[in-house]
Amino acid sequence: MNRREALSRVSLMLGGTLSAPTLLAFDRWNQTAPQNRINGASMLTEEQREIMARVTELIIPKTDTPGAVDAGVPDFIEIMLRDCYAKPAQDVFLAGLSDLAGNRFLTGSADQQTTLLKQVEAQAIANAKAGSVSFWQLIKELTVWGYFTSEAGVKASFDYQPNPGKFEAIKIKPGQKDFMYGNQV
Amino acid sequence: MNLNINAQKAQTFDAIVVGSGMTGGWAAKELTEKGLNVLVLERGYEIKHVEDYKTAMLDPWEFEHRGKITTVAAEEHYASMFFSAKEGSQLNFTNDKEHPYIQKRPFNWIRGYHTGGKSLIWGKHTYRWNREDFMANAKEGLGIDWPIRYEDLVPWYTYVEKFVGISGQAEGLAVLPDSTFLPPMAMTAPEAHFKKSVAQKLNRPITMGRVAHLTKPQPWHTAVGRASCQFRNRCTRGCPFGAYFSSLAATLPAARSTNRLTIIHNAIVQEIILDDHAQKAKGVRVIDQNTMEVRDFYAKVLFLNAGTIGSTSILMNSKSARFPNGLGNDSDQLGRNLMDHHLAVGARADIPGFEDDHYFGARPGSLYIPRFRNWGKDKRDYLRGFGYQGGAARADWSRGGTEPGFGADFKKKMTQPGPWKMSLTGFGEVLPDPNNRFYLSPDKTDKWGLPQVVFDADFSANDRAMRKDIMNDGAEMLEAAGFKNVVPYDNPAAHMGLGIHEMGTARMGKDPKTSVLNKYNQVHTCKNVFVTDGSAMASASNVNPSLTYMALTARAASYAVAQLKAKSL
């Protein structure tokens, strides 16, 4: 179902019809939805890219639902580093990857990798101070943000409701998936 | 010769409205509906209702940066990047780099230079001011007395409320007079508990926020193409349903349907053209922001609705032999008594329990706690008061960014609703102070050769004293409800302007020696110029001001048309 159909249904539920300009506008949106892309050369080496991908997958692994790599999180992080962070944060990120490379992160077993990341997390928490950012904070936040806003992540994780149509207090069952409305971004 | 006369005729209207936002839309609607041919001049680019809300229907994954702020956008939106530079809505906020201003003292000047102005991006909380708001200056000997009282505005409040559509609950409180309401939005379970606890233990009433959203559209709303709120809460991207009030969705379509409306975009008003001898405005001189072409437009009456700073800047820049310091500025009041609401102060808490409670939908509104300080018998060591907006919600997946842990269990946990949290944000009244002001730079200009605005204003000792109460009273109420980890907060990075409720700088008053506008928003000394946006305000109240601007505009438009018919303008 594309946007035009979805909205037409909503308007029927509302007991009305949408005007021709509104429907035309929906068509135009369908044609102009931006596509994720990476322009130009990566700032990361092949090894760094591999380490980054592995770390994101350890943060959000593939289970009965897609993991970080399935959801395109590594590409998203590169875009974010390039466009949303200044050099100091980029340098912190690259240094964090180099530290993991120095610890032969990629050649370790899954358990060893998890143990190493737990140390990285513990150090980041112990050394956290206002006004500075650690490699762990960066990669953790970007992985969570990238995964839970990706199409695969949203659809697998939540009861996605882009057009709720109402607001009401409700009761939920233990373990029930959360709703997502798409207004967080 | 004939050619010139024809050209002048083609550019002559009954009325010119400068600005297409919250009040410009109302001026256009009222003046066209009363039979005038109206030209609306909008300085910014055109945004077409619905079809130009290009991000409104996008899913999160369709944004390249998933809504985060890029370094380029942050640089372009230096007034306050926190929401104005966000990927989904930055086109609806002004690029400060292209439209620079000067901060002698820090000021967050957040603008919307496009069709609809800030009505496209406003917070939509909509409240009547109360009787005391219009009398406090006189009682306390501060600033000057308002030339009108609450009673003067009541019929106009009622009139605009019906057309706007305001959801809310009637409470019968003198401190927060009721409007004509559509059904209120629902409270979450902890909010209902909070309301009950605070009423019982502290005797403070709490109501659902009164917001300009159609919860039950009436025939006059659907007649201009508006529909019900869909509870998407993506409002700042523009609402394709026209569910919240904006000039784009409501007043401009109403004006257009009269066939007496002309809108010209990209038209920056440089100055008012004055007939010095008659002490009347003849029209306005306009620069096309793209072609730099200069054109003149003429009319019998002018309405300035360019936003507080915009309207006053135009008056300041309109100099003549009669008005060497700016049009209507015999009193030297232009630019003075700049006010806002101070905010980014309050308290937050964790809410234990309520695990099986949740909500369906994204609510574009919050609770409202009306002023209780310096009200009735309560007396504090500062003047005026504050209200709160706030609410209780469950933490969502984004808590995972800072919550320790990773792996399969962490991933699963983030797909379930997090703990409940509540936050209260105060909105405090700022007092009129002639030294809080803006002026036009004597040497710095923008790319159109117009002088840049210089801000020289800050919060006062009165504001700082009030902020202590905002924190403590907020914490007290959260504790009264049994909430835990209560944290009062006061953000030191918030400057004047962040409330985006700029008021004052061309105030109304009885005496031309101390005010710029009379009780009908007419320039005292240039009667066919009306200014009906925030610049007219003589004090700031502590509630959101847009409804009062709208009521003043409808009232002034009615008066202007009557005066035109009586040939008194």
TrEMBL record, chain A:
This is Gluconate 2-dehydrogenase subunit 3. InterPro entries: Gluconate_2DH_su3.
UniProtKB/TrEMBL annotation, chain B:
Transmembrane segments: none annotated. Residues 230-341 form the Glucose-methanol-choline oxidoreductase N-terminal domain. Keywords: FAD, Flavoprotein, Oxidoreductase. The keyword Magnesium does not apply. InterPro entries: FAD/NAD-bd_sf (IPR036188), GMC_OxRdtase_N (IPR000172), GMC_OxRtase_C (IPR007867), P2Ox-like (IPR051473). Residues 432-552 form the Glucose-methanol-choline oxidoreductase C-terminal domain. GO terms for molecular function: flavin adenine dinucleotide binding; oxidoreductase activity, acting on CH-OH group of donors. Its cofactor is FAD. Belongs to the GMC oxidoreductase family. This is Choline dehydrogenase. It comes from Spirosoma fluviale.
